Amino acid sequence: MTPSQPVIVVEGVSKWFRDLVALSDVSLTIGPGVTGLLGPNGAGKSTLLRVVCGLTAPSKGSVRVLGRQPRVDRELWRDLGLVPQQEALPEQLTALTFVTAAARLQGVAGAREAAAAHLDLVQLDPGDTRTLRSYSKGMRQRVKVAAALVHRPPVMVLDEPLNGLDPAQRIRMIELFRSLGAEGHCVLASSHILDEVERFGSRVVVIAEGRLAAEGPFHEIRDLMDDRPHRLRLRTDRPRELAAALVGAGVASGVAVSAATRDEPGSVVVDTLEVAAFRHAVAALAVRAEARLYELAPLDDDLDSVFRYLVERRYR
Amino acid sequence: MSAAYSILIRTLASRGRLYAIGGLGVLVVLVGVAVRTAEDSSSADAFDAVNAAGLALFVPVTALVFASAALGEMVEDSTLVYLWARPVRRVELALAALAAALTVSLPCVLATMFAMSVMLGIDASFVVGTLVAATASTVAYSALFVGFGARVPRALVWGLVYIAVWEGIVASVGSGLARTSLRLYSESLLRSIAGVEPERFAVGAGVAAIVLIVVTAVGIALTTVILERADVA
Question: What is the helix (H) or strand (E) element at residue B27, kind and residue range?
C-alpha cells in the first residue's frame, strides 16, 4: 500500500432495513493511516463499518477493500481485522483460548505464541485462567482488539474500540492505533466522541443521519464546526440595551429579547457567526450598556447540533 | 475447522442442556424398564417403545437441543462474527458446527438407546439395530437443525413443534405423508436390522440409509448457504 493508494472505496452506498434508511448514498475513500469515523449514536457508523467488512450487503452501491469485494471474497479476511461493536464474547473460553482460536482461523503459524504476544500488547495476562465471562467491559474490549490484530492485517476496522476503557487504557490504545497507522496499516476507527477522534489521527470522516457530513483533515473539520453559526443565551437585567449594543458592535447577526420579570432576569438569545469575537466583546459591551450579566450559555453546542449543521451545509 | 470446532464445542456443552437431556434420557430408559416388566409384553411392544420414546422423541429432541444451539446461540448473542469474519470456507463452519453438535448429542443418544434396548431384553440384533438407527437419525436431524438454528429465531420452540406435529403425529397416522418424516427411515433401518415385520410404508435398509445420508448432505449444504448469505451482527 502506498500512502496515496485508496484501501477502502465506498461508492454510492445506501442501506435500508425495511422503512429505516441507515445509510444514504455514502461515497468515500480511505487510505493508509488512521482515519476516525465520527458521528452521533444512531448515525449509521456501525452499519457503514458492517458494509465495509461485508457483514451485510449494501442495498445499493458498492464497496471495495484492497480492490476486492468484502461480501463475497472471504479470503479478504486474511488482510482484514475487525473489532465489532458488541460486547459479547464466547463466555466459556479464556482470553488465550479465544485469541489462539482466532489466530488458528487466520492460519497464523505459532498461533498460541502469537495470541499470547497480542494479549500482552493490549496489557492482558495471557496466563489468566479465568473465562471471559468474568472479564470487565474494558478487558473484553482489549481481548477483541487482540483477536483482531493477531494476524497483523493491513486493514483494520474498529467499531467504537475505546468503549469501556479507562483513560489510561484509552491513551495506550490510541498510541497503538497510531503506531499501526504510522507503519502503513489502514486503520478505520469509529467513535461518537470528538476528542477521541481528534487523537486517533489527522483524517476524519463525519457521518450523521446516515449521510456523509464531512471528510478531511481533522483541523479542517474542527474549523468547520467552530465557524458554523452559533446560538447563545445571555441572562441580564437590561436585555434590550444589551441586545442593541451587540447588534451595534456587529458581533450578533440576530437577537431575540425576553423582558425581565419580577422573579426572573431578562434574556437575549443571540445568533452569531463569529463566536470567538462575540465571547471576547460581550463583557465590555455589557459594561457599556450598564447591564449586569448573569449567565452566558451555548444553546447548540452539543455534537448532534454540530453534526446536523454539517449535514445541512453539505446538502444545501 | 478445528479452531472453529473448539469454540463451538465449549459454547454447546452447557450444564443446563446436559441436565435436561440427561433427565429425558432417564425417563426414556424407565419406559424401557416399564415395558420389560409388564406382564404381557412382547417384542412388538419393545419395538414400539424404542420407536415412540426413542426414535420419535428422544433422538430428535436431543439433536434439536444441541444442533440448533450450535450456530443459533452465536447468532443470538452476536458472537458468530468471531467465526464468520475469518478466511474460512462456510462449508467448514457448517461441518464444524455439525461435528460439535454430534460430539455432545451422540454420546447422550447412544448411551440412552443402548440402555433402553438392553433393558427391553430382545436380542443382540435389536440392540445393534437400535444403535444404528439412532446414530443415523441423530446425524440427519442434527444436520437439518444446525442450519435451522442459524436461520430461525427461537428455533428450539419451532423445532419442538415440528417434532411433535410432523415426526410425531403425521408420521404415525400411516399415510403416504409418513414418507416425508425422518422417523420413517430410522424406524425402517431398525426393522431391517432387527428383523421386525415391516409395516405398510416402511422402506428397505438401503433406501433408508440413502435417504438419511441425502438429508444430512442437504442439511450441510443449506447451512453453508445460510452462512454465506447471513447478515452478521
Answer: helix B15-37
Is A92 in contact with A131 (CB distance < 8 Å)?
yes
Q: pTM for the complete prediction? A: 0.83
Of the partner residues A75, A90, A97, the one whose CB lies closest to the CB of residue B79? A90
Provide φ and ψ at A189, rounded to 5°.
-125, 130
Neighbours of A113 (CB within 10 A): 13
Q: What is chain A's pLDDT, residue by residue, as a tens digit (316 residues)?
A: 555 679 999 999 999 998 899 999 999 999 999 999 998 888 899 999 999 999 999 999 999 999 999 999 999 999 999 999 999 999 999 999 999 999 999 999 999 999 999 999 999 999 999 999 999 999 999 999 999 999 999 999 999 999 989 989 999 999 999 999 999 999 999 988 877 888 887 789 999 889 998 888 887 877 777 667 788 899 999 999 999 999 999 999 889 998 888 788 889 999 988 888 888 899 999 999 999 999 888 887 666 677 777 777 776 6
| Residue B17 touches chain A, beta carbons under 8 Å | no
Residues B118, B188, B24: CA angle, nearest 5 degrees: 45
Residues from chain A that touch B7, judged by Cβ atoms under 8 A, are: 90, 93, 98, 101
Residue B194 φ/ψ region, left for φ over 0, alpha for ψ in the -120 to 50 degree band, beta for the rest: alpha
CA distance B215 to chain A (A): 27
User: Per residue, what are the HEC states of chain A?
Assistant: CCCCCCCEEEEEEEEEECCEEEEEEEEEEECCEEEEEECCCCCCHHHHHHHHHCCCCCCEEEEEECCECCCCCHHHHHHEEEECCCCCCCCCCEHHHHHHHHHHHCCCCCHHHHHHHHHHHCCCCCCCCCEHHHCCHHHHHHHHHHHHHCCCCCEEEECCCCCCCCHHHHHHHHHHHHHHHHCCCEEEEEECCHHHHHHHCCEEEEEECCEEEEEEEHHHHHHHHHHCCEEEEEEECCHHHHHHHHHHCCCCCEEEEECCCCCCCEEEEEEECCHHHHHHHHHHHHHHCCCCEEEEEECCCCHHHHHHHHHHHHHC
Chain A partners within 8 Å of B6 (Cβ): 97, 101
Report ipTM (2 d.p.): 0.85
Q: Which residues of chain A does B94 touch, with a Cβ-Cβ cutoff of 8 Å?
A: none
